[in-house]
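queue> holo job accepted (2'-deoxycytidine-5'-monophosphate)
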Amino acid sequence: MEKITIAIDGHSSCGKSTLAKALGNALNYAYISTGDMYRAVTLYFIENKVDIKDPEAVRAALQKIKLHFELRPEGNCIFLNGRNVNHDIRTMPVNELVSPVSTISEVRKEMVRQQQEMGKNKGIVMDGRDIGTVVFPDAELKIFLTADVEERARRRYNELIAKGMKVDLDEIKHNLEERDRIDSSRKDSPLKKAADAILLDNTHLNHEQQLDKVLQMVKEKLWETRV
Ligand code: DC
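queue> job finished
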């Protein structure tokens, strides 16, 4: 059967990667959370004390960064120079620096290049902020996912608490709002709904309901694009 490209964009912590993973599994497609790539670059910058305001230092650092994904029982894990950083990229220091890092055009150019390479054969679900607008503007199915910020903060809080992390709900909510603000107002590839993306607000939807809705959209797209 013909394979399509599915782009999922939207606000921070509204379940884009959970949905991408479930869709990938249901359709037997690859899935990539591009936020993990920006997070891994941010982790490298923190660990190696790269001055993000120094374009030369950023350029030199990017050349030393090798990213790849490997499917593990816990999901598609990102590796930074051969090290599984799936856990380390979700800490508060990374949360706080990742949006500023992702405003850097050099960083975006390199990430977009790698993402386009990963998805060149279609049969992929990719989630992020600019997938439907910049990475795959021709994706057959584009979804723009969102949810109330209170609900998103609560979900992220429960997720981190379940992982045994010590976190504060207000701090999480503030971080989400700040990331949304930076992501939506940056000059290079700001977060915005592509004109042809379908808006999906999942504030009152559980995982199964979302997956059902999107699988129905996929069915319709496959029907429309059949030759
Ligand atoms: O999806 P996430 O919350 O893990 O993403 C982390 C940050 O990475 C987010 O604040 C903005 C940035 N990002 C981006 O600029 N472009 C993407 N395609 C994906 C993420």
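queue> The first strand starts at residue 5 and ends at 10.
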